[in-house]
Amino acid sequence: MAKMDEVQLRLLKEVADLHDVPEGAYNLRANGESVGRNTTANIDIQTKTDVSGIDIRIKDGTKKESVHIPVVLSESGLKETVYNDFYIGEDCDVLIVAGCGIDNCGTQDSEHDGIHRFFIGKNSRIRYVEKHYGSGEGTGKRILDPRTEVYMEEGSTMEMEMVQIKGVDSTNRTTVAELKADAKLLVSERLMTHGEQQAVSAYKVTLDGSGSSADVVSRSVARDNSFQKLDLCVLGNAACTGHTECDSIIMDNGRILAVPALEANCVDAALVHEAAIGKIAGEQLIKLMTLGLTEAEAEEQIINGFLK
Amino acid sequence: MLELKNIRFDADTDGKNVEIIKDISLHIDNNKFVVITGPNGGGKSTLAKIIAGIVKPTSGSILLDGEDITDKSITERAQMGIGFAFQQPVRFKGLTVYDLLRIASGKTLSISDACQYLSEVGLCAKDYIKREVNASLSGGELKRIEIATVLARNVKLAVFDEPEAGIDLWSFRNLTRIFENMRRSELTRTILVISHQERILNIADEIIVLSDGTVSRHGTKDEIMPELIGSGVAQTACPKIEEGSGENG
């Protein structure tokens, strides 16, 4: 594997909890180039020939294996769009860890747009973790515009954990999912914006199959002068259940626009949406202050817990 | 020792100045179990909040072990050893029972320590430690967790604001036992409970009756209790259940 510098290793730790080369299959991308790859008997990774990106193929019946595909950018002014396609066989149980860390110390904007497509085979179970992180003192913006598409066959399950807690100046993320019969999608999104950051997160989940279900839960915090738009849409085209929850804390001059949308096209579709936006309740701060915390410490504990 | 000197508290209600607490002076000695009771609207909860620093008195002063704490913040008072259990415990999305106990203890809390505090309030740590302190918990469970957060702090003065409010009778009987255990505990701490309940009044060393913003009576349980029975101030949880509870209540 090509050697990574200190900044890149730090970014890698933030986005993938990796201190070293991961176990199992992986593809590490740094400043636009693949710097390390490993495949296993069941998981193959191939570089695409038409566009930038990789194809990840997971054989039928692959269980208890993982794929790590983190991306780090430490060069100011780098802009890239990467297409990663996951072809997952039937009856698999696999962990996929993606994520992007950008460190921008320069004056030019750095941008990584990852387009991820998942084709999940029958009865397979995937846990997908995606973390986004930005750092660096430069005036150049750190921009991430990911698009995630999930196509789920019958009886498959996808658990998605999408986290963006710090340092990304602008993000416009889109997640679309289409579910066949008895497929199950669970999404947990955690988002925190600060400074002048702007974040847009849109979900469109289509429940096409009978017995399919989706639970999309977004918890977010907007601090300082940041702005978030959360757009959660679920369509029920069959006897299905869908639940979306959008729970947000606003602080300082933070602003949040929550746009819930449900569309039922079948009489047996049961869809529920919950949304709440508000500041931290005064009584929560007081309670923690009676336990000996200062107001600032109380605020931190409440936010940490909320985004945990 | 907790000392209140000429505490007054005025509130602005619909543009009118209302005296909630008129002029209260009190001494509460160390290691006593004191119950403050009295009719609704008599200023009991306000007084409890004034002691914890949640409400600032209009005038007067508060001393803890001789030190004037009138201008100290909630945090400073907590750090000096004042604990406060809310009448309506606060819910938190995301914070777990363990998180609250860890924050309360002010240190890295082992699971066995957390288990100890929870068992003191009759909850099994295994079932609760990872639970979020959110709307999924019942009123009685929240109340007990609230009390556990005070126990975890090892305070000099623990103030409980109407612990019986908002819980069912079954939980109330267990709650009474928690206070009885606290009373018997060897820990040196002063316990101040705001309560209407006869069962809690019966545990007290001293009873203070607050009505219309003033202290109308202050004495030992034996002095005060006979005056309260049948006055409507000392309430039984439920006459029917009290009759039948006997030795197991």
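qc> Chain A has a mean pLDDT of 90.
qc> done
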